[in-house]
Specification:
mainly alpha; elongated
Length: 293
Protein backbone atom coordinates (compact mmCIF):
# COMPACT_ATOMS: atom_id res chain seq x y z
CA UNK A 1 0.00 0.00 0.00
CA UNK A 2 1.69 3.22 -1.17
CA UNK A 3 2.61 6.04 1.19
CA UNK A 4 1.40 4.13 4.22
CA UNK A 5 -2.38 4.38 3.78
CA UNK A 6 -2.82 2.55 7.07
CA UNK A 7 -1.12 4.66 9.73
CA UNK A 8 -0.88 3.45 13.31
CA UNK A 9 -3.52 5.18 15.42
CA UNK A 10 -5.20 6.82 12.42
CA UNK A 11 -8.13 5.78 10.25
CA UNK A 12 -8.11 6.79 6.58
CA UNK A 13 -11.55 8.32 5.92
CA UNK A 14 -10.90 9.63 2.40
CA UNK A 15 -8.40 8.88 -0.38
CA UNK A 16 -8.58 10.80 -3.65
CA UNK A 17 -6.42 11.57 -6.64
CA UNK A 18 -6.20 11.32 -10.42
CA UNK A 19 -6.43 7.65 -11.38
CA UNK A 20 -4.34 5.56 -10.86
CA UNK A 21 -2.64 7.70 -8.21
CA UNK A 22 -3.68 8.79 -4.74
CA UNK A 23 -2.52 12.32 -3.94
CA UNK A 24 -4.54 13.24 -0.86
CA UNK A 25 -5.76 11.29 2.15
CA UNK A 26 -7.71 12.38 5.19
CA UNK A 27 -7.08 10.56 8.46
CA UNK A 28 -9.17 10.59 11.61
CA UNK A 29 -7.30 10.66 14.91
CA UNK A 30 -8.49 8.88 18.08
CA UNK A 31 -9.80 12.25 19.37
CA UNK A 32 -12.01 12.54 16.23
CA UNK A 33 -9.91 15.38 14.78
CA UNK A 34 -8.50 15.04 11.28
CA UNK A 35 -5.11 15.30 9.61
CA UNK A 36 -4.47 15.48 5.88
CA UNK A 37 -1.68 13.92 3.83
CA UNK A 38 -0.89 15.52 0.47
CA UNK A 39 1.64 14.01 -1.91
CA UNK A 40 3.53 17.15 -2.96
CA UNK A 41 3.66 18.62 0.54
CA UNK A 42 4.77 15.31 2.03
CA UNK A 43 7.67 14.68 -0.38
CA UNK A 44 8.83 18.30 -0.11
CA UNK A 45 8.40 18.42 3.68
CA UNK A 46 6.02 21.39 3.50
CA UNK A 47 3.22 22.13 5.94
CA UNK A 48 -0.29 22.25 4.52
CA UNK A 49 -1.49 25.42 2.77
CA UNK A 50 -4.12 26.05 5.44
CA UNK A 51 -1.40 26.39 8.06
CA UNK A 52 0.66 28.65 5.83
CA UNK A 53 -2.03 31.30 5.32
CA UNK A 54 -1.20 32.95 8.63
CA UNK A 55 2.22 34.05 7.31
CA UNK A 56 2.21 37.64 6.02
CA UNK A 57 3.10 38.19 2.37
CA UNK A 58 5.95 40.56 3.23
CA UNK A 59 7.43 38.07 5.68
CA UNK A 60 7.12 35.31 3.09
CA UNK A 61 8.94 37.33 0.40
CA UNK A 62 11.74 38.31 2.77
CA UNK A 63 12.16 34.78 4.08
CA UNK A 64 12.33 33.23 0.61
CA UNK A 65 15.37 35.32 -0.39
CA UNK A 66 17.77 33.19 1.66
CA UNK A 67 16.90 29.67 2.80
CA UNK A 68 20.09 27.66 2.11
CA UNK A 69 19.07 24.93 4.56
CA UNK A 70 16.01 24.08 2.46
CA UNK A 71 16.52 21.70 -0.46
CA UNK A 72 13.42 23.15 -2.14
CA UNK A 73 15.11 26.56 -2.18
CA UNK A 74 18.19 25.18 -3.92
CA UNK A 75 16.05 23.32 -6.45
CA UNK A 76 14.22 26.54 -7.31
CA UNK A 77 17.40 28.63 -7.54
CA UNK A 78 19.26 26.12 -9.71
CA UNK A 79 16.28 25.65 -12.05
CA UNK A 80 16.07 29.44 -12.34
CA UNK A 81 19.75 29.67 -13.33
CA UNK A 82 19.30 27.07 -16.07
CA UNK A 83 16.16 28.84 -17.29
CA UNK A 84 17.97 32.18 -17.46
CA UNK A 85 20.74 30.68 -19.59
CA UNK A 86 18.20 29.08 -21.94
CA UNK A 87 16.36 32.40 -22.20
CA UNK A 88 19.59 34.29 -22.87
CA UNK A 89 20.66 31.91 -25.64
CA UNK A 90 17.17 32.10 -27.17
CA UNK A 91 17.21 35.90 -27.19
CA UNK A 92 20.65 35.94 -28.82
CA UNK A 93 19.38 33.51 -31.48
CA UNK A 94 16.26 35.55 -32.19
CA UNK A 95 18.08 38.88 -32.34
CA UNK A 96 21.45 38.21 -34.02
CA UNK A 97 22.51 41.85 -33.77
CA UNK A 98 22.79 41.37 -30.00
CA UNK A 99 25.06 38.36 -30.52
CA UNK A 100 27.13 40.38 -32.99
CA UNK A 101 27.46 43.20 -30.49
CA UNK A 102 28.78 40.68 -27.95
CA UNK A 103 31.03 39.02 -30.57
CA UNK A 104 29.22 35.69 -30.20
CA UNK A 105 28.81 33.19 -33.02
CA UNK A 106 26.26 30.37 -33.28
CA UNK A 107 28.59 27.82 -31.67
CA UNK A 108 29.04 30.04 -28.62
CA UNK A 109 25.29 30.59 -28.39
CA UNK A 110 24.79 26.82 -28.50
CA UNK A 111 27.37 26.57 -25.72
CA UNK A 112 25.12 28.81 -23.59
CA UNK A 113 22.24 26.41 -24.24
CA UNK A 114 24.48 23.52 -23.12
CA UNK A 115 25.57 25.44 -20.03
CA UNK A 116 21.90 25.99 -19.19
CA UNK A 117 21.14 22.28 -19.48
CA UNK A 118 23.59 21.47 -16.66
CA UNK A 119 21.70 23.33 -13.88
CA UNK A 120 18.48 21.75 -15.19
CA UNK A 121 19.98 18.29 -14.67
CA UNK A 122 21.36 19.16 -11.23
CA UNK A 123 18.04 20.57 -10.01
CA UNK A 124 16.08 17.69 -11.53
CA UNK A 125 18.32 15.17 -9.77
CA UNK A 126 17.94 16.98 -6.43
CA UNK A 127 14.18 16.80 -6.89
CA UNK A 128 14.38 13.09 -7.69
CA UNK A 129 16.61 12.49 -4.66
CA UNK A 130 14.09 14.36 -2.53
CA UNK A 131 11.19 12.26 -3.83
CA UNK A 132 13.12 9.01 -3.41
CA UNK A 133 13.78 9.81 0.25
CA UNK A 134 10.40 11.24 1.21
CA UNK A 135 9.73 8.29 3.53
CA UNK A 136 6.35 7.22 4.83
CA UNK A 137 3.61 9.32 6.37
CA UNK A 138 3.42 8.87 10.13
CA UNK A 139 1.46 10.45 12.92
CA UNK A 140 2.28 14.14 13.45
CA UNK A 141 4.46 13.99 10.29
CA UNK A 142 7.29 12.39 12.25
CA UNK A 143 10.07 11.21 9.95
CA UNK A 144 12.29 8.38 11.17
CA UNK A 145 15.91 8.39 10.09
CA UNK A 146 16.54 6.20 7.11
CA UNK A 147 19.45 5.39 4.89
CA UNK A 148 19.33 7.78 1.90
CA UNK A 149 18.84 6.33 -1.56
CA UNK A 150 20.31 7.95 -4.65
CA UNK A 151 17.50 7.23 -7.11
CA UNK A 152 14.95 4.87 -5.61
CA UNK A 153 12.26 2.98 -7.49
CA UNK A 154 8.73 4.16 -6.70
CA UNK A 155 6.81 4.13 -10.01
CA UNK A 156 3.45 4.07 -8.22
CA UNK A 157 4.32 7.33 -6.44
CA UNK A 158 3.22 10.22 -8.66
CA UNK A 159 5.81 12.62 -7.24
CA UNK A 160 8.70 10.22 -7.73
CA UNK A 161 7.52 9.32 -11.24
CA UNK A 162 7.26 12.98 -12.23
CA UNK A 163 10.75 13.68 -10.89
CA UNK A 164 12.25 10.61 -12.59
CA UNK A 165 10.79 11.51 -15.99
CA UNK A 166 12.04 15.06 -15.67
CA UNK A 167 15.54 13.92 -14.71
CA UNK A 168 15.68 11.59 -17.73
CA UNK A 169 14.48 14.46 -19.93
CA UNK A 170 17.25 16.76 -18.69
CA UNK A 171 19.89 14.16 -19.58
CA UNK A 172 18.51 14.06 -23.13
CA UNK A 173 18.68 17.87 -23.20
CA UNK A 174 22.35 17.59 -22.17
CA UNK A 175 22.93 15.34 -25.20
CA UNK A 176 20.85 17.54 -27.50
CA UNK A 177 22.58 20.80 -26.57
CA UNK A 178 26.05 19.21 -26.59
CA UNK A 179 25.52 17.75 -30.08
CA UNK A 180 24.28 21.15 -31.29
CA UNK A 181 27.85 22.42 -30.91
CA UNK A 182 29.19 19.86 -33.40
CA UNK A 183 30.21 21.46 -36.69
CA UNK A 184 29.14 20.56 -40.24
CA UNK A 185 26.26 18.18 -39.52
CA UNK A 186 24.00 17.29 -42.43
CA UNK A 187 20.20 17.28 -42.05
CA UNK A 188 20.01 13.59 -41.10
CA UNK A 189 22.74 13.90 -38.50
CA UNK A 190 21.00 16.93 -37.03
CA UNK A 191 17.75 15.00 -36.73
CA UNK A 192 19.41 11.95 -35.16
CA UNK A 193 21.86 13.70 -32.86
CA UNK A 194 20.08 16.97 -32.01
CA UNK A 195 16.37 16.76 -32.79
CA UNK A 196 15.69 13.18 -31.61
CA UNK A 197 16.96 13.65 -28.01
CA UNK A 198 15.27 17.07 -27.93
CA UNK A 199 11.93 15.60 -29.03
CA UNK A 200 12.03 12.63 -26.64
CA UNK A 201 13.27 14.84 -23.80
CA UNK A 202 10.40 17.26 -24.44
CA UNK A 203 7.90 14.40 -24.27
CA UNK A 204 9.36 13.34 -20.92
CA UNK A 205 9.22 16.94 -19.67
CA UNK A 206 5.59 17.26 -20.75
CA UNK A 207 4.63 14.01 -19.01
CA UNK A 208 6.55 15.07 -15.91
CA UNK A 209 4.96 18.50 -15.87
CA UNK A 210 1.46 17.10 -16.18
CA UNK A 211 2.03 14.57 -13.40
CA UNK A 212 3.31 17.33 -11.11
CA UNK A 213 0.27 19.44 -11.99
CA UNK A 214 -2.34 16.76 -11.29
CA UNK A 215 -0.48 15.81 -8.11
CA UNK A 216 -1.28 19.31 -6.84
CA UNK A 217 -4.83 19.33 -8.27
CA UNK A 218 -5.73 15.88 -6.88
CA UNK A 219 -7.59 15.47 -10.18
CA UNK A 220 -6.79 15.44 -13.89
CA UNK A 221 -7.63 19.15 -13.97
CA UNK A 222 -8.48 21.84 -11.42
CA UNK A 223 -8.51 25.63 -11.22
CA UNK A 224 -6.97 26.72 -7.91
CA UNK A 225 -5.43 30.20 -8.37
CA UNK A 226 -5.36 30.73 -4.61
CA UNK A 227 -2.87 27.88 -4.16
CA UNK A 228 0.79 28.80 -4.79
CA UNK A 229 1.70 25.15 -5.38
CA UNK A 230 -0.90 25.11 -8.16
CA UNK A 231 0.76 28.13 -9.78
CA UNK A 232 4.21 26.51 -9.55
CA UNK A 233 3.09 23.37 -11.35
CA UNK A 234 0.72 25.12 -13.77
CA UNK A 235 3.33 27.59 -15.02
CA UNK A 236 5.92 24.82 -15.26
CA UNK A 237 3.42 22.78 -17.29
CA UNK A 238 2.96 25.72 -19.69
CA UNK A 239 6.75 25.81 -20.03
CA UNK A 240 6.76 22.09 -20.84
CA UNK A 241 4.12 22.66 -23.54
CA UNK A 242 6.27 25.42 -25.04
CA UNK A 243 9.35 23.16 -25.09
CA UNK A 244 7.28 20.45 -26.80
CA UNK A 245 6.12 22.87 -29.52
CA UNK A 246 9.70 24.06 -29.94
CA UNK A 247 10.87 20.47 -30.49
CA UNK A 248 8.19 19.86 -33.13
CA UNK A 249 9.33 22.86 -35.18
CA UNK A 250 13.02 21.95 -34.75
CA UNK A 251 12.75 18.95 -37.09
CA UNK A 252 15.15 19.38 -40.01
CA UNK A 253 14.13 18.51 -43.56
CA UNK A 254 16.49 17.88 -46.50
CA UNK A 255 17.61 21.00 -48.32
CA UNK A 256 17.98 24.53 -47.05
CA UNK A 257 16.94 25.25 -43.44
CA UNK A 258 13.44 26.64 -42.98
CA UNK A 259 14.11 30.01 -41.38
CA UNK A 260 10.51 30.47 -40.22
CA UNK A 261 10.41 27.07 -38.52
CA UNK A 262 13.73 27.80 -36.81
CA UNK A 263 12.42 31.13 -35.54
CA UNK A 264 9.22 29.56 -34.21
CA UNK A 265 11.23 26.81 -32.51
CA UNK A 266 13.56 29.24 -30.78
CA UNK A 267 10.66 31.52 -29.81
CA UNK A 268 8.90 28.66 -28.04
CA UNK A 269 12.18 27.67 -26.39
CA UNK A 270 12.27 31.21 -25.01
CA UNK A 271 8.67 30.91 -23.77
CA UNK A 272 9.47 27.56 -22.16
CA UNK A 273 12.51 29.02 -20.43
CA UNK A 274 10.46 31.97 -19.15
CA UNK A 275 7.79 29.58 -17.87
CA UNK A 276 10.35 27.51 -15.99
CA UNK A 277 12.03 30.64 -14.64
CA UNK A 278 8.78 31.98 -13.19
CA UNK A 279 7.77 28.56 -11.86
CA UNK A 280 11.20 28.12 -10.28
CA UNK A 281 11.04 31.49 -8.54
CA UNK A 282 7.56 30.69 -7.22
CA UNK A 283 9.04 27.61 -5.53
CA UNK A 284 10.85 30.02 -3.18
CA UNK A 285 7.77 31.66 -1.58
CA UNK A 286 6.06 28.25 -1.70
CA UNK A 287 8.86 26.93 0.49
CA UNK A 288 8.96 30.00 2.71
CA UNK A 289 5.21 30.17 3.29
CA UNK A 290 5.01 26.45 3.97
CA UNK A 291 7.92 26.33 6.40
CA UNK A 292 7.40 26.28 10.12
CA UNK A 293 9.18 28.98 12.05
Amino acid sequence: MNNNEKVTGLDCTEAIGPWPFTTRRTYQKPDRSHTVWRSRHHRKALVLPEAAKSLAITETLLRCLWMPRKLNWWIGIIFAIGSLLFALASVLSLWPHLATAWSLDSTQINAIFFAGSIPFTIAAYLQLFQAANAGEFLRDNARPRQRPTLLGWRPHDIGWLSSALQFAGTILFNINTLDAMLPSLDWLQQDLEIWAPDFVGSILFLASGYLAFIETCHAHWAWEPGNISWWVTFINLLGCVAFMISAVFAFVLPGLPNAEAVTVSVAFTLLGAVGFFVGSLLMLPETASATKS
